[in-house]
Each structure stands twice: as structure tokens, then as C-alpha cells.
Write a structure and sequence with these properties.
Helix 1 packs across helix 2. The termini are far apart. 21% of the residues lie in helices and 42% in strands.
């Protein structure tokens, strides 16, 4: 009873503190208002109830700041759709069927895990605690000895990890949170001309992957340093050494880069002591989210949110399709736009640009949704990432053999 009373008192005190912070949003002193807003932002969804009550406050300052904070909570949650962080896996099993271990891992990750080709009746031991998915799978494959896993990053946020019979990868690899970075090869070639001259080149190949819930707008690997086994550091400012533009847009599935260097270690040096760089990722810093409820009565309406706007110019239905024309501003958001139609039952249907309608910048363009004629259209929803923030994942490999 004492423990329960204490819990109630703590909760009441927290709620009272939140209520006081909300009251301070209308304080005469600017620094008090700013500190209260910062405290409420840190409180997050715990402050939502009091902030929604504040939307009815007679104080305009309180109403405005409460609305901003609530919008900030929604934006933060939408941004997690692009950078959700790693799944954390905890498994402690001794001589258990592989199927059971993989099922346990599957329950703890948002990423699609396939193992139809794995020897699921084999016994395996695994002891990992709060490890990212890829690190846990690597430990599982090495514990078994005859398993391998492969990661396939498809269009958008579709990621598939397949566990099958194979040899655990001996390629140098690097784990960081939800990322897997692999150095696929380092090899050199030498060509000779008819006069005895020689020119050596070195090629370095990389591949990276990430879990479902990671959707960068762009990704590039930037090589920073190479040192060979003799201690020689290679200059990376030579012409065409980097290519500099290994870009991956969110709509593209390729996640690899090959870097050619117009020089290579001399004969007799068969190792690189250091390869160092950064995986540079671009994520949105905000999200425009617009919903037209009862859209068939909203033609001509414009809604602004999150630094952008959508105007529903026209809308109609024919032959099992909902067709509309919209104007998106700023125009660059149109290429990132996600479109959904929602029926009265809550079922969502993804939209697409109407065939043959490419649209002109700053002009409306056609979109369509395939829906049964009998389905009642409840809403149209549009969202697009806005702005950008940079994230670097440092990558370092040591003692690499050259082939």
C-alpha cells in the first residue's frame, strides 16, 4: 500500500509540475516562458494532455506555444520513420533449435527476417544482450559455423535479411548501431607499356546496409585515409581518386561504391595497415504532413504545414479510381511526396502520379488512387520530408591483405 501511495504521489507531483510549466508559458518574463517550453519539450508526450487543455486558454501566448509544442511532438515521431535507430536483440539460448533462436530474433526486430533455406533443426547456442540486429546475427552465424546472412536494401524502406547455409563472412566488416559496412575487396593491377614503363592502380570496393526504419535521403562514403603496410600514407587529393559522388537517393536500391586510386603499394607490400573514412548520411530535419478530410468537398483548398503546402485543385472518381490534381510548394517537395487515400474503414491506398502527366514546376500535376467504386473516400493524406541534417558513421579497417 505504501509503495502504491508513493507511486500516486510521484505521478501527481509530476502532473502538477507539468501544469505549472504550462502556466509559465504565459509568464511576463521571456526567460521563464522559454525555460517552461524547453521543459515541456523534454517531457514529450507526458505533457500532451495538459498542452491540449492549454489550446483552450484565454492567453494567446499560451495557446500558440502549446500548439507549437504539440506539432513538435508529431514531427519528432514522423522523423523516426526515417531514422528509427537499431533494433536491440537479447537472446540467451543453449543448444536450442536454430528455428527457435531465429524466431526469437524475428520478434525483436522490425526488419523482415527470412530463413527458409537455413538448417532450422540444427542446435545452436547464442548469448547476446541488447545488441543491434546485425551484430546479433553475426554472432549467431559464427556460433553455428556454417551459416551466413545477407542484407538486401530494396526501394524505399523495404529491407530483407536472409539467413542460409554458408560460411560466415571473412570480409572485413564494421557494425555501428543499425548499420553494417563491408570492405568487399582491395586489389591492385599493374600495366606495362612497350617501352618498359609501368603504371599501378588500386581498387577498393565497399558495401553498406541498414535495418528497416532507416531511410536516408542520401548516402555517400568518403575515403579519408589509406596507409600501406610499409607505413606510407597515400594522398587522396589526386585527380579522380575519390569520384566524390557516391550518392544514394531514397528511391535507389544500390548501396555500394568502388574507389579507384591511380597508385598502389610497391612490390613486396601485400597489406594495408589502415583504411579510414566516413559513411555520410542525409536525413530530413522536418516533415510536411497534410490531411484533407472529406476531400471530395475540398477542391480549391490549400493546407500549409511543416514548411510546405498542398493545394487540392480538383478531385473526382471514375472507373475504380480517385483522380486529383494538386499543387505542392515548394516544388522540390513534389519528388519526395508520399500520397495515401483512406476509406471510411481506415484502409489506406498508396497513390501515384497519373500516367502521362509529368507536371511542370509550380504547376498542378495529376495523381490517382485505385479504390473500389463502393468504397467511401474519407481522406487524402500527403507527407514529404523537408530540410536536411547530416549524420556521419565513422568507418575504420586495419591490417587488410591486398590481392
Amino acid at each position: 500500500m505504501n509503495a502504491l501511495l508513493w507511486a500516486v504521489l510521484v505521478f501527481s507531483q509530476d502532473d502538477a509540475t507539468i501544469a505549472e510549466w504550462v502556466r509559465q508559458l504565459g509568464d511576463d518574463a521571456v526567460d521563464v516562458r522559454e525555460q517552461a517550453a524547453a521543459n515541456l519539450a523534454r517531457a514529450g508526450r507526458a505533457a500532451e494532455k495538459r498542452l491540449r487543455e492549454a489550446l483552450r486558454s484565454p492567453n494567446e501566448e499560451v495557446r500558440g506555444r502549446a500548439a507549437q509544442l504539440l506539432a513538435g511532438f508529431e514531427t519528432a515521431e514522423r522523423l523516426k520513420e526515417f531514422d528509427a535507430g537499431p533494433s536491440r536483440v537479447t537472446v540467451r539460448r543453449e543448444r536450442a533449435p536454430l528455428r527457435e533462436v531465429l524466431e526469437e530474433i524475428r520478434k525483436q526486430t522490425r526488419t523482415r527476417l527470412e530463413f527458409a533455406e537455413a538448417p532450422v533443426e540444427d542446435k545452436v547456442s547464442l548469448d547476446v544482450k541488447d545488441e543491434p540486429l546485425f551484430r546479433a546475427l553475426d554472432a549467431l552465424c559464427r556460433s553455428h559455423g556454417k551459416l551466413a546472412f545477407a542484407v538486401e536494401n530494396r526501394r524505399g524502406d523495404n529491407v530483407i535479411v536472409t539467413v542460409s547455409v554458408g560460411t560466415p563472412s571473412k570480409r572485413p566488416h564494421f557494425f555501428h548501431d543499425q548499420y553494417l559496412f563491408v570492405l568487399e575487396y582491395v586489389h591492385t593491377t599493374t600495366t606495362y607499356d612497350l617501352e618498359g614503363g609501368a603504371a599501378s592502380r588500386m581498387r577498393v570496393g565497399f558495401r553498406w546496409s541498414w535495418e528497416k526504419g532507416t531511410r536516408p535521403l542520401g548516402a555517400a562514403f568518403r575515403l579519408r585515409e589509406i596507409v600501406d603496410g610499409a607505413g606510407t600514407s597515400y594522398p587522396l587529393d589526386v585527380p579522380n581518386a575519390l569520384g566524390l559522388a557516391f550518392e544514394l537517393m531514397r528511391t535507389g536500391p544500390s548501396v555500394s561504391a568502388t574507389i579507384d586510386l591511380p597508385l598502389a603499394p610497391p612490390e613486396g607490400v601485400d597489406r594495408l595497415s589502415l583504411v579510414k573514412g566516413d559513411l555520410e548520411l542525409t536525413f530530413p530535419e522536418g516533415v510536411m504532413a497534410v490531411t484533407f478530410d472529406g476531400p471530395e468537398k475540398k477542391a480549391g483548398t490549400e493546407i500549409r504545414n511543416g514548411g510546405g503546402s498542398v493545394r487540392l485543385v480538383t478531385i473526382g472518381r471514375e472507373e475504380g479510381k480517385v483522380r486529383a490534381r494538386i499543387l505542392v510548394e515548394p516544388a522540390e517537395l513534389a519528388s519526395r511526396l508520399e500520397m495515401k487515400a483512406v476509406d471510411k474503414g481506415g484502409k489506406e491506398v498508396a497513390g501515384r502520379r497519373a500516367p502521362g502527366v509529368t507536371g511542370v514546376e509550380n504547376e498542378p500535376f495529376g495523381i490517382e488512387f485505385t479504390m473500389p467504386a463502393e468504397a467511401e473516400l474519407a481522406a487524402l493524406r500527403f507527407s514529404a520530408p523537408t530540410g536536411s541534417r547530416e549524420k556521419k558513421v565513422p568507418v575504420e579497417f586495419r591490417d587488410l591483405r591486398i590481392r
